[in-house]
Design brief:
Layout: H1 2-10, E1 15-28, E2 35-49, E3 54-63, E4 66-69, H2 79-84, E5 89-108, E6 111-131, E7 134-139, E8 147-158, E9 167-175, E10 189-199
Length: 212
Amino acid sequence: MIALLFGDKLNSGGLEFGLTGGLNASNITGYQGADYKTGLALGLYFNIKLDDRWYIHPEANPKYPTGVDHLPFYSLGDQVLDSLFATANITRKIKNISVPILIRYRIHKLFFAEAGPQIGLRTKAKDVFESGDLSYKNDITDQFTRFDFGMAIGLNQRFNSKKTSMSVGIRYYFGLTDIDKSTAGTQKNSVFQALVSIPVGAGKNQDKVQQK
């Protein structure tokens, strides 16, 4: 709602504001046998022009899911539950808010590379056990660190030089924080993203991106 109301005021001169979202494919290193889990990410971004090639690109992503699929079975501490879900599929779902602060560089025309630090705030975490028509949710929020820190790198392509132009990109985040406090060894987030970015309210500001 804020983006729709104030997008035109936030898009002016060397400043671009918009919505970003896409598909997350996440994994957690150190979990043997687990597979990537997919989920939808959503957020806001600013693209701040420094000169014809360099930009600062901060984002605020209130929806940034991570976790794994096909987690190996572990005991729930209850014989009945253990017998019911002994062959269940276990999906670890972790909800996060992420804030990447990237430096974006125009490689050629409308093709950009980006890199920078990213901070994550864990909000909730649960394991979902599913066996046929049965399901069970195990709250594991306290098992994980509240904060995560790592680095993100990616590539971005704008469709055209107008400020209203959408762009698509790919990004990889590699965590540097051991996020699982209850499991031996080291467990770090690993996230691939396919993203679409849409400027909001930029129709009144038709400045073009340089394509040299």
